[in-house]
Amino acid sequence: MDSVQFLLFLILFPLISALFMLAVRRDTDREWIVKLSALALGAVTVLLLVTQFGQGTLYFGFNAEPVSLLMFALEMVISVIILWFAVRFRNYLVIGLTLVETALIIWFESAATPAVVVKNPLFLDQFSIIMALIVGIIGSLICVYSLGYMRHFYQHHTGIPDRTNTFFIIIFVFLSAMFGLVFSNSLTWVFFFWEVTTLCSFLLIGFTKTEEATKNAFTALWMNLLGGIAFAAAIVYLTYQPAGMLGIDQVLVSGKALVLIPAALIGFAGLTKAAQMPFSSWLVGAMVAPTPVSALLHSSTMVKAGVYILVRFAPVFAGTAVGYTLAFVGAFTFLIASGIAISQSNAKRVLAYSTIANLGLVVACAGIGTYEAIWAAILLIVFHAISKSLMFLSVGTVEHRIKSREIEDMNGLIVRMPRIAAIMTIGIAGMFLAPFGMLISKWAAIQAFINAPFGLAFVVILVFGSALTLFFWAKWMGRLLVITPDAENVEGLVDKNEWIALVSLAGLTVVTCFIFPLISAYLIEPFLLANYGSVANLSQDNIIIMMMMLFLIVLLPLSILLPHKKARTLPPYMGGVETSHDMHFQNALGARTEMKLANYYVGSWFGEAKLAMTGICLCSAFIVLMFAAAVLGGGAFL
Amino acid sequence: MISLAWAAAFILLAPAIGGFIAGIDRKITAHMQGRVGPSVFQPFYDVGKLFEKEGAMVNETQRYYVLSYFVFAIFAGALFFAGGNLLLVVFALTLAEVFLVLGAYSANSPYSHVGAERELLQIMAYEPMLLLAVVGMYVVTHSFDAIDVAGFPTLLVLLLPGVFLGFIYILTFKLRKSPFDISTSHHAHQEIVKGVTTEFSGPNLAFIELAHWYEVVLMLGFVFLFFAASWIVALIAIIIVYLLELAIDNTNARVKWQLAVKSSWAITLVLGALNIAVLYLIGRA
Amino acid sequence: MAYLQKSPWIIHYDASSCNGCDIEILACLTPMYDVERFGILNTGNPKHADIFVVTGSVNEQNKYVIRNIYDQMPDPKVVVAIGICATSGGIFRECYNVAGGIDTIIPVDVYVPGCAARPESIIDGIVKALGILEEKKAAMATGAPAEVPAPAVAAGKLAGGA
């Protein structure tokens, strides 16, 4: 298969699946289509990796005029759809923003001369392969998971009409758009796919059609529209550049001063898409959507598109005030979002804030833009996508069983749902514990920041934020692992499709830690070499040591099976008070009381309201500085 | 490069050294309190006794958590003395601590639960400073490897005085001494009964104690790094630092965790971060 | 090696004592008598303790507590009853609310009578207990039952509630 055929397959095949989904009437048909599509997408992405990883950067040139025209038409359709919803719900902000954005689109389409048309609209390099793998493997697994999840969802919400088909159609369109995004060299194409993801996100957040869902969907919409406007403005700016620089490859090789303004604008767009402060509330609000949506869009793929474009532009950001201010937005978002996560007891909100925080770290790396920082950034993207999607899917399964998303209700889950709790433990460990992936990435980030000019500030922010993340992850993990005697095992019949996804992702979490040296050597380092002329990696010794740690962690649980004398079981110490087996006791007034344990949330320090306001003010200030730096240092406009 | 000989020496000798330090600790503390105190070999008797006790547990998983804590504490120390990457040493140590915390959580007991929460708060309090100490060493020596830091010709403490003082501050946490022994404490101090170690008994408790000795030796190894250019000065510094910790322990009451965390963070910023920033300014980075 | 003898950790419980014996026990820990010389630590956690030091007599409320603490101590363990109230009920023996000495609930190994028992007697009693502790450890090693089974106590009030 010719390289470009892989790309076209990945972009177009999900659309075919979506078309088939229109005609589906029976559950079994739907299962077949989704599973076959998932298998196809996963297999082709792996095939893509295997055949293309050594090829370097490939550009695919063809006469893309008809496609661009089609995209323009579709962009108008998207605007109309959004306007229709906005008018229906009387959301004047969205109406206004859509009109502005549409005007900008029409502007750059009409102003485009043949000189600005990008000759190589599609391209493929190692970073695209990595992103495609994330979309293709994790996305496919989430699709399989959704079969079980949505069936259960509608079984328990019998009042509302079953729109599972619509759900999968939107998901497939979204997957197609994500593939298109990571394979596009032309910024207008990236923008088109970007807007498609905005629309899909809007439709999926509001999927349950409750009042809260609709409100949050519109919040996500206007924030992402702001980003879209910035993106469109950047394209307008670039359209007027003498050399015509609408291709990413062209932007990267041009002189920095020429492209600082569009870089800042696209940086802003990336910030909104990645839910960085002050635009973080949309991601937190998006948690009302069904869990597969949270896993797919709002942790592993769509928000990654935001940081993806920032990492692409990192060579432009490196060493500039624009880059540094952008990096500070990311760094402070990391710190503050990690703090807020401590005070949250709702599992999905913790995951949302943790996602925002980790994306902030990637943004910080991208803004700094040295090759070491980008190495860390790509590692962060990969490991976070796997672990976070695993966490979201686990929480979704748990929620269906115990009817709650509260961490406190997951007390003793290891007894009530042992296998799910074990999987969740792997997921949480993957997020913060050595030697798992996120720890490797944070390690790489520390080394990158230290070597960057003025990097100390970022190092300090990183070490503090890292300590905060440890607190909220470890206390959640502890909650899961409480051995509550007499608790009933309610694991029951977890849907087979959900199991497939969960076990696969848990396996991936562990396997990627073992093979990350290979990922680094064959994918990330060549990418760095091509774009920066230098490579970064962990020394051989350290890799060996991490392998040792991983082995130990895998081996040590076997110690439970070690032969030992049957030991007496002691009850927990309650100051001498006699307790029943399920921890009830007679209190001082003679009444039967249950002992309950709960985590610290420290709302007085890490409360959402106060900290979010701090983050909003701080990051808004840095964004303003970013634009100021771009304008003062940037080239002539028009 | 990695030196397996040093790592092996650490693994074999650290319990003896750690136990001995613990014994001297109790002896000196006793004399500070006008008592005679136990024999300096008392900690060894304690651990020996614990191994002779019945291996009763609150649940089956406790054995696994304690073993993991023990193994990774040794791992961290062995890596340090082998001359390995200091960041990885800190991460491995954190991993060990998390296992202890998980073991405490698993017991479903109010005292060990509060102990576990406080242990996490404690880790949150001291980890920034610990990492910044490593960062400071890198900034001066341009290496994260303990072997390179130890081989640096200048006394690091002269360039990193603030970082050193900050490190001493958090050393109090790591050694589990007042005023920062909020999650569990030594000897006869009680803290929410025994805090994080409440529900561990017999051999499990013995392993926890041994792991703590390994950690103490590792921490004193860090102190050594600040003075590594001259071994004699380093040894004297370690002795002085430990005596200082004892003096602080015996003259201070335990503080609330809020104060422990806030003060630790403040010290980290003011002493740690500022010190490193100054190094950049004066061009010694 | 006789570790148990060299490192006895105590848990001290005041059953219904007037605190006279308790003050004397705590006095043992002060620099004046300094029992830490013998490696004795007041741990306050039954799971860490070897010697259960009880003062005061048994009544309806504390019999469950004494039983609970005793059960939570890992073997080998000894019980030392300090003061005449713990030994036999003392002057409160005939009271309607007092069941008697500690040995009505758990097996006691050493009795230290006195009202209040002197620190010297207490230390003497503890030292006697150390010998018994070593005997129990030896018995444990050979697999013999560690101690005489304790008298049965009716199930706690938990079943019935208030």
Structure in words:
The complex is a heterotrimer of chains A (638), B (285) and C (162). With 638 residues, chain A is mainly alpha-helical. Chain A has one domain. Helices cover 73% and strands 2% of the residues of chain A. Chain A has 25 helices and four strands. In chain A, strand 3 and strand 4 form a beta hairpin. In chain A, helix 5 packs parallel to helix 17, helix 7 packs antiparallel against helix 8 and helix 15 packs parallel to helix 21. Chain B is built from eleven helices and no strands. The mean pLDDT of chain B is 93. In chain C, 34% of the residues lie in helices and 16% in strands. Chain C has five helices and seven strands. Chain C is globular and about 45 Å long. The C terminus of chain C is likely disordered.
Task: Supply the key terms.
heterotrimer; A: 638 residues; mainly alpha; two-stranded antiparallel sheet; 2% strand; globular; B: 285 residues; 73% helix; 0% strand
Provide a compact summary of the structure:
The complex is a heterotrimer of chains A (638), B (285) and C (162). Chain A has 638 residues and is an all-alpha fold.
List the helices and strands and how they pair.
The complex is a heterotrimer of chains A (638), B (285) and C (162).
Chain A: H1 3-23, H2 27-52, E1 58-60, H3 65-88, H4 92-111, E2 122-124, H5 126-156, H6 164-183, H7 187-205, H8 211-239, H9 248-253, H10 256-273, H11 281-285, H12 291-300, H13 302-312, H14 314-317, H15 321-342, H16 347-368, H17 371-402, H18 413-416, H19 418-432, H20 437-451, H21 456-481, H22 496-532, H23 540-555, E3 584-586, E4 592-594, H24 603-606, H25 608-633
Antiparallel strand pairs in A: 1-2, 3-4
Helix pairs in contact in A: 1-2, 1-6, 2-5, 3-4, 3-7, 4-8, 5-6, 5-12, 5-17, 5-22, 6-7, 7-8, 8-10, 10-13, 10-15, 10-25, 12-17, 13-16, 15-16, 15-21, 15-25, 16-17, 16-21, 17-19, 17-20, 17-22, 19-21, 19-22, 20-21
Chain B: H1 4-32, H2 42-52, H3 61-81, H4 86-106, H5 110-141, H6 146-150, H7 156-159, H8 161-174, H9 202-226, H10 231-251, H11 257-281
Chain C: H1 3-6, E1 9-14, H2 20-29, E2 41-42, E3 51-55, E4 58-59, H3 62-72, E5 78-82, H4 83-88, E6 98-100, E7 110-112, H5 119-142
Parallel strand pairs in C: 1-2, 1-3, 3-5, 5-7
Antiparallel strand pairs in C: 4-6
Helix pairs in contact in C: 2-5
